[in-house]
Amino acid sequence: MLQQARVAWDKAVKDPRDGRGRRHGHLGLLGLVVVAFAVGKKGLKQVAQLAQDVGARTRKRLGLPQAVVGSTLWRLLEKQPAAGLRETMMAQVQQVLKDPRTPRLAFPMGVLSLDGKSLWTTHQGEVKGLESVANNEAGRELWSQGALRAVLTSVVAAPCLDMEFVSAKQGESPALRQLFPRVVQAYGEHFGVATGDAGLTAAPNAALVRQWGKHYCFGLKANQPTLHEYAVRVIAAKQCPARARTQERAHGKTVVRELWTPALEPGEVDFPGARMLLLVRQQHWGDDGTCEEEYRYFVTSLDTTLFTFKQLLRLVRVHWGIENRHHWTLDVVLGEDEHQPCRPTRTALEVVAWLRAIAFNLLSFFRARLPLEGRHLVQWDRACELLRDSLVHGRRLETLLTAA
């Protein structure tokens, strides 16, 4: 744990503090924040308390010979520039991905999922560096900062690979055109298909993905009315049985998912590289016979020479993993959407977002290698407890991991 807490910070991560009066090592403080976020601490006071819990010997190994107070961390994060934090996270992920023991899902190629996520939204006052937008519901100005995230969902840990920040007046599609080339250059060997919700479905985005030699699977909704209506009409006209079907129990209901996949002829639709349209019908059956039904449509450049029908159905579910494995954890476990530990400015929001992403990767990689509880990974709160115990009590990580 101590080795992982000592993050290999990029040389571009600079200390913004004055030269005089530095009690604590700069990178030690940043490492403390990352570890505290990883064990579920959300505020700087809790981070400082964790530094007291670990004891003097452990603080020294982290480069923190004295106890830390929350105001010290506040002043640091308020001034800390974001330069070098992206490179730090990339190095963290690349090191783990090189390990053949890193658990992966059984797919013909890796899967990169792209989705936007809110970092901070407020009506309370101006956020330095952000532009406000009118909020029709509240009648007040709204300051908002989000990020388009790239997550490797074909890896069990679903690590965050990179982010492109998006303010209230910007869209996700322009962010994709900045983000995707970077991700391919850094991690191209680890994935072959990119997935995204309907908000990213656009011909320029599909062309970009194919230009970089990757496949796509994008959601279809009313933002692409022509293609969406065509998919509804063509799939309904086929009247063929489902190509793949799964059934499972979840939250007290029986969940049935079925897939229909009519192939497309070259040039049949005006969308770069499109080979198939997908329909996933999801039914939630209650024990009393009631049924909730949902239909979702997709367009993809994949075909059945690359993915089987069963794998295509699983691909759609794997994309949803960016929500329930990544976004949910950041919000519920790490408190990203509700808790900003320092004064909100655009730079501070970005810095904390990078530190939380590094912390999520640390926690998630750790959790993915813990012994299973039955057929499932341990609960997130339990993983946080084990991670904290390994730091505070000096337990060796090897005693918590599987023999593999």
Automatic annotation (TrEMBL):
<dbReference type="GO" id="GO:0003677">
    <property type="term" value="F:DNA binding"/>
</dbReference>
<protein>
    <submittedName>
        <fullName>Mobile element protein</fullName>
    </submittedName>
</protein>
<feature type="compositionally biased region" description="Basic and acidic residues">
    <location>
        <begin position="8"/>
        <end position="19"/>
    </location>
</feature>
<dbReference type="GO" id="GO:0004803">
    <property type="term" value="F:transposase activity"/>
</dbReference>
<dbReference type="InterPro" id="IPR051698">
    <property type="entry name" value="Transposase_11-like"/>
</dbReference>
<feature type="domain" description="Transposase IS4-like">
    <location>
        <begin position="109"/>
        <end position="360"/>
    </location>
</feature>
<dbReference type="InterPro" id="IPR047647">
    <property type="entry name" value="ISAs1_transpos"/>
</dbReference>
<dbReference type="GO" id="GO:0006313">
    <property type="term" value="P:DNA transposition"/>
</dbReference>
<dbReference type="InterPro" id="IPR002559">
    <property type="entry name" value="Transposase_11"/>
</dbReference>
<feature type="region of interest" description="Disordered">
    <location>
        <begin position="1"/>
        <end position="21"/>
    </location>
</feature>
<dbReference type="Pfam" id="PF01609">
    <property type="entry name" value="DDE_Tnp_1"/>
</dbReference>
